[in-house]
Specification:
Blueprint (H helix, E strand, L loop, with lengths): L1 H11 L6 H6 L6 H12 L2 H14 L2 H8 L2 H17 L6 H9 L1 H34 L3 H48 L6 H14 L16 H19 L2 H9 L2 H15 L1 H17 L14 H5 L3 H50 L5 H28 L4 H12 L3 H9 L5 H27 L4 H4 L2 H13 L1 H11 L23 H5 L17 H28 L1 H7 L5 H29 L1 H31 L5 E3 L2 E3 L1
Antiparallel strand pairs: 1-2
Helix pairs in contact: 1-9, 1-28, 3-9, 3-12, 3-13, 3-27, 4-5, 4-14, 4-16, 5-11, 5-14, 6-11, 6-12, 6-13, 6-25, 7-8, 8-9, 8-16, 8-17, 8-18, 8-20, 9-14, 9-16, 9-17, 9-27, 10-14, 10-27, 11-18, 11-22, 12-16, 13-25, 13-27, 14-16, 14-27, 16-17, 18-22, 19-20, 20-22, 20-23
Length: about 650
């Protein structure tokens, strides 16, 4: 990534020493790269490890609810992203929007909420990944926790958000290739053989170890109490993770206006297949072969510690592909963590540089000052995240606990933040008080439910499903009435035009554009993104906003209501043919995701790729000319010529 960053600087003038390039990629990222980055943002190690975990515990409903708990809010974020593009196109972070509208007090409150969100999200990733790496390699779990962020800090330090986008693409492409390989390899295993035989294996597992709360104890049904509780918990928690994650806003700000909505919609729908397909397939194979001598833990079943630590997926890979499978899981876990961690690091870095340093410590900060503090932020957060994850490990917290409880802390800002961008009536008092009351309500309900149901408040009881569901729902929903009620006392009528009064963007260097059009790089269509200032641009952005709203509603209804809820109510247990169709559709969807994240960015970015190639060839040609001239000069005794802008001067 360091090499690619330097190459882009030399060939297409993408100078990451400039703040607008470092933080927002000059707001010119294309649809394909945006879609790939969106998938990558949610392709946590937790997504793969966690979907397999809930599939093992709840059956086929678990991976489906995991996927349905992610895709609707990814698509919904397109609504917020395009609204920000229209109302405050120069913003770098969510917190700048909050500060301009509500002032310092609200800015500090939301800074706290965003940092908590980023920290708990990274801890969730590191805990699961380091446990999986330790189990497969023997590496000390704390060594893995500290080593994982090292590479991330290096390339993010050098390349900024564009390096994050490109790394997202490379890592996500590699991960999905490996997952597609698993989707075929699992069915070629002699002990599995076919989808029909896999069905019989899972059916037998349900008879040996029936699932409490599932219809007839079967793993092969959507009628699962544990599954739907996890679905409710997951969708609420993920709305908080998306809306309060400043990295999502940064990626939206970095995309060109016409790429925001299609990028998030395509990425959100493509993402659905990954936890659904992988989680269903991995958990089915593990359940079916757990009593087979080829399974790593044979003759015993997996322990609760192994399950909660996220080892269902590694054991699946080892079962179907031996050491090669373990190596593949090691690779995709590393790539998933580094890719998503990069987005979190750049998000916190932006908060430190823009919302702390530039706002409170040095209002006249130059471009160079902000970049320097962005670098400090990258290093600081990488160390903080590792240290915090280490602390959680030593107090007995693992992937399962953080996966279930994180919504209690990430959800209070959902409605107040959305209202900040979409509802001009929300008052300053409502914006400040409602998320704090929501967090207090959520924590009280969470701990109170654990004590009421289990008689004690411990890591075990607070990580149980029901207390986490109640706490997350209370944390997510309670700020809605709090905000509305407080606003009714003294509603505001905010003028969206006020967002444009404050200059936020640094100058983007565009002087070389005309020159580049006449050079080898000129074949690329260079798009200069600026604030939409005319009525046509505003109408176009409003149209994209309506399209985003329609897709968000359709995705939520399809993935969360019309598809799963009738299946839950019907108490249907999958037959052999239905189970085979279920997995075939999931596998086809996964291969479609491979096309979206792997090949679409190449097609969409072909002009810039050609421009880079031409510039590299031009540079090589000039070097060859220089070498030939120097050889001739040295042979004839003439003075060595010099090359000035491609022209030979003696």
């Amino acid at each position: 990534m360091v090499f690619i960053t330097n190459l882009l600087k030399r060939t297409v003038n993408e100078d990451n020493r400039k703040t607008e390039m470092f933080m927002t990629a000059n707001r010119s990222v294309t649809t394909g790269l945006t879609a790939s980055a969106v998938v990558s943002s949610w392709l946590w190690s937790t997504a793969m490890l966690g979907s397999s975990l809930v599939g093992y515990v709840n059956g086929v409903s678990g991976p489906f609810w995991f996927a349905a708990g992610c895709s609707p809010m990814i698509v919904f974020f397109a609504v917020l992203g395009i609204s920000c593009k229209r109302k405050i196109p120069e913003a770098h972070t969510l917190l700048e929007i909050v500060r301009i509208r509500y002032g310092t007090a609200a800015h500090i409150v939301y800074m706290f909420l965003c940092l908590v969100n980023n920290l708990i999200a990274v801890a969730n990733m590191l805990l699961g990944a380091s446990a999986a790496i330790s189990a497969m390699t023997g590496m000390h779990i704390i060594a893995a926790t500290f080593l994982l962020p090292v590479g991330v800090a290096i390339y993010t330090f050098v390349g900024g958000i564009k390096a994050t986008f490109l790394t997202d693409y490379i890592h996500t492409f590699t991960i999905v290739i490996i997952l597609c390989y698993f989707s075929i390899k699992a069915l070629t295993l002699e002990e599995v053989g076919s989808l029909s035989n896999l069905y019989e294996l899972v059916k037998a597992a349900g008879e040996r170890s029936p699932v409490a709360g599932n219809e007839q104890g079967s793993y092969l049904t959507m009628t699962s109490k544990g599954g739907i509780l996890f679905g409710i918990l997951h969708i609420a928690a993920n709305f908080g993770l998306v809306i309060m994650d400043t990295s999502f806003f940064i990626k939206a700000f970095s995309a060109s206006p016409k790429a925001v909505v299609p990028g998030y919609v395509v990425g959100g729908i493509a993402y659905f297949a990954i936890p659904w397909c992988l989680g269903t397939l991995a958990s089915s194979v593990v359940l079916g072969l757990e009593d087979n001598p080829i399974f790593p833990t044979y003759p015993r079943r997996m322990t609760s510690t192994e399950i909660s630590g996220g080892l269902v997926l590694p054991y699946f890979a080892i079962t179907i592909a031996g050491k090669g499978g373990a190596a593949a899981i090691l690779l995709i876990t590393f790539m998933a963590v580094t890719s998503t961690l990069s987005a979190q690091v750049i998000a916190v870095s932006s908060i430190i540089s823009f919302d702390m340093y530039r706002t409170y410590w040095n209002r006249t900060a130059t471009d160079e000052d902000v970049i320097r503090w962005s670098h400090y932020g990258v290093v600081f957060f990488a160390l903080l995240a590792s240290a915090f994850s280490t602390m959680l490990h030593y107090v007995g917290v693992d992937l399962g606990w953080t996966l279930y409880m994180l919504g209690v802390l990430t959800c209070p800002g959902i409605f107040p933040t959305a209202f900040t961008i979409l509802w001009k009536r929300q008052s300053k008092a409502a914006a400040i008080i409602s998320p704090l009351l929501g967090m207090a309500t959520g924590i009280a309900v969470w701990l109170g439910s654990a004590h009421a149901l289990y008689g004690d408040v411990t890591i075990v009881t607070t990580g149980a499903t029901v207390p986490c569901v109640w706490g997350t729902v209370a944390s997510a929903i309670s700020p809605l009435p709090y905000s509305i009620i407080i606003t009714l006392f003294k509603p505001e009528n905010f003028d969206w035009a006020d967002f444009r009064k404050e200059k936020l963007a640094f100058e983007v260097e565009t002087s070389s554009v005309a020159e580049r059009r006449n050079s080898a790089v000129a074949h690329v269509d260079i798009e200069i993104i600026s604030e939409p200032s005319n009525a046509d641009s505003q109408r176009q952005l409003k149209r994209w906003g309506r399209i985003a709203a329609i897709w968000a509603a359709a995705t939520f209804l399809g993935h969360w209501v019309l598809w799963p809820l009738p299946m839950y109510a019907s108490k249907y247990i999958f037959g052999k043919g239905f189970f085979a169709a279920w997995l075939v559709i999931a596998i086809i969807w996964l291969w479609g995701t491979l096309i979206v994240v792997g090949f679409y960015p190449i097609v969409d970015g072909r002009h810039q790729l050609l421009a880079v190639w031409r510039a590299v060839r031009e540079g090589c040609h000039r070097k060859t000319e220089r070498a030939e001239i120097e050889d001739e000069s040295s042979g004839s005794g003439e003075a060595t010529p010099k090359i000035v802008e491609g022209k030979v001067e003696h």
